[in-house]
Amino acid sequence: MQILYVTPTCKGGSFCMSLKKANVKEREPVAQTQQQQVKFLKGLVLPPLLTALVALSPLSTPPVSLGGTIDAQKGNTLFGHACIGCHVGGGNIIQPGATLFLKDLQRNGVETEEEIYRITYYGKGRMPGFGEKCTPRGQCTFGVRLREDEIKLLAEFVKSQADQGWPDIENSEE
């Protein structure tokens, strides 16, 4: 059986085509051979390639702790500017029973980042609020107010430090 097919015949930017006749029976063995070659190559190359990809995948993505280290550095710097006056090393020089150590946080009903965020933003007891929209004014700091993202970072930092017992963090930004 003969069929017609179109092939490009010109090089460059012009559009040229020609019609050619082909015998379908002659092309079938070639197509079948090509399919067999592709199957063979898939079977030969694909398994080792996938194995190598899976084995090397941890090397191609940064470790989870890298992002945590960067945030810990930023949190530590922010803590040093806004909180260190009262909460040196997670303690509390104003009110010793309200430290940032895990046992005191739990005893005072502050166990989540959200609760730490709320107290940092609005204040509680002797601790002033640091949020931009903190009210009433007497409960809020008279110093520089913090943005929401900064307070969120502080809450994450404080919770992480409390969970780890307040280990020292090297601060490379100072």
TrEMBL record:
Residues 70-162 form the Cytochrome c domain. Keywords: Electron transport, Heme, Iron, Metal-binding, Thylakoid, Transport. One of its GO terms (molecular function) is electron transfer activity. This is Cytochrome c-553. Functions as an electron carrier between membrane-bound cytochrome b6-f and photosystem I in oxygenic photosynthesis. SUPFAM superfamilies: Cytochrome c (SSF46626). Belongs to the cytochrome c family. PetJ subfamily. It comes from Escallonia herrerae.
